[in-house]
């Protein structure tokens, strides 16, 4: 059976050795289809009861997929692409976000869609959040600035999902204007939007063995050479962690220099993996590595730190 991939194969019509692409842009339809499938499968494998977290996330991703069918207007694409990638002052960011209606509407839509699978009190709280746009904007700016503790954990997951579907669509709709050649390098954060990676992906197929980082916000993948630490660039004390099976598709790479770790998803071993779902689904591995004194690098927007 052909695997449902969202990573488009290389163009075979170009002869000779292929250059490594700095970026692989998201094909959102396929990203959401696969993520939802993985979340449902993990819910089943974990024996999750109705109302469990993986099932809730699968509804959330299903709702993002519906939003994907409502393309952003040109003004919102430009406004999102103009948001500074890094170093933006939170007050200034708030002003910019207030002028972008698409993510606000996306939040309201997502709350409406998942309302039937969350407890009544949560639904009421989320609806209240959606009615106070200035406060919701403040929370969105906090999330984008990495101030996760400022935002209620239940709101944060849905709010990030709303921002993410808009940021990812903006990249998808604007990708012909993104200059690939200017983005080659050793970026620790996403060259398209400045967000942190969820995990490393080691690709298979015609990109066999190449490592890309998956963006937690706009879903773009960017290339980084293997055998260096994603966080600090050191290479002397990297270790790979697995439970028993050396060919396990979900692994951890830790760095003894900066004492951080990041999940590595071996798509060359299992092309069906999804960064967000399978990172969350392998939390036992995180616990084992954190007990050895390593701290998590990157961000999984299904599980905010703190
Ligand atoms: Zn990004
Ligand atoms: Zn390091």
Features:
single chain, 306 residues, alpha+beta, FdhE-like fold, 2 domains, 8-stranded mixed beta sheet, 10 helices, 41% helix, 11% strand, binds zinc ion
Q: Label the overall shape.
A: globular
Mean pLDDT, rounded to whole units? Answer: 90
Distinct helical segment count:
10
> Gyration radius, to the nearest Å?
19 Å
Ligand inventory reads:
zinc ion
List the topology elements:
Layout lengths: L22 E2 L3 H18 L7 H16 L5 H8 L8 H9 L2 H14 L5 H12 L1 H12 L8 H22 L22 E6 L8 E5 L5 E3 L14 E4 L8 E6 L4 E7 L8 H6 L2 H8 L4 E2 L10
Parallel strand pairs: 2-7, 7-8
Antiparallel strand pairs: 1-4, 2-3, 3-4, 5-6, 6-7
Polypeptide structure, described:
With 306 residues, the chain is an alpha+beta fold. Helix 2 packs across helix 5, helix 3 packs across helix 8 and helix 5 crosses helix 8. The longest helix has 22 residues. A hairpin with a 4-residue loop joins strand 6 and strand 7. Strands 1, 2, 3, 4, 5, 6, 7 and 8 form an 8-stranded mixed beta sheet that branches. The relative contact order is 0.14. The model has no long low-confidence stretch (mean pLDDT 90). The protein has 2 domains: 148 residues, no CATH class; 113 residues, Alpha-Beta Complex (FdhE-like fold), CATH 3.90.1670.10. One zinc ion binds next to loops.
At a glance:
This protein is α+β, with helices and mostly antiparallel strands and 306 residues long.
């Amino acid at each position: 059976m052909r695997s449902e991939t969202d990573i488009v194969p290389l163009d075979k019509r170009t002869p000779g050795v292929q250059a490594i692409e700095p970026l692989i842009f998201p094909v959102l339809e396929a990203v959401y289809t696969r993520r939802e499938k993985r979340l449902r499968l993990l819910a089943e494998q974990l024996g999750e009861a109705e109302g469990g977290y993986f099932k809730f996330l699968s509804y959330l991703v299903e709702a993002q997929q519906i939003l994907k069918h409502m393309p952003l207007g040109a003004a919102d694409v430009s406004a999102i692409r103009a948001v500074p990638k890094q170093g933006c002052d939170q007050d200034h960011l708030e002003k910019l976000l207030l002028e972008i209606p698409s993510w606000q509407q996306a939040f309201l839509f997502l709350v409406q869609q998942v309302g039937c699978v969350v407890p009544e009190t949560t639904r009421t709280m989320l609806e209240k959040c959606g009615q106070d746009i200035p406060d919701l904007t403040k929370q969105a700016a906090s999330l984008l600035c990495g101030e996760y503790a400022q935002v209620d954990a239940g709101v944060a997951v849905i709010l990030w999902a709303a921002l993410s579907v808009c940021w990812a669509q903006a990249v998808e709709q604007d990708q012909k204007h993104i200059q690939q050649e200017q983005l080659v390098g050793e970026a620790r954060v996403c060259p398209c939007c400045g967000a942190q990676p969820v995990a490393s992906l080691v690709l298979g197929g015609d990109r066999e063995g190449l490592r890309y980082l998956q963006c937690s916000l706009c879903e773009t993948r960017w290339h980084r050479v293997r055998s260096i630490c994603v966080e600090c660039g050191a290479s002397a004390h990297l270790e790979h962690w697995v439970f028993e099976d050396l060919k396990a598709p979900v692994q951890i790479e830790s760095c003894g220099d900066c004492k951080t770790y990041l999940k590595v998803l071996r798509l060359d071993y299992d092309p069906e993996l999804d960064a967000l779902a399978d990172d969350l689904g392998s939390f036992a591995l995180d616990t084992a590595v954190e007990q050895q004194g390593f701290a998590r690098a990157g961000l999984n927007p299904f599980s905010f730190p703190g």
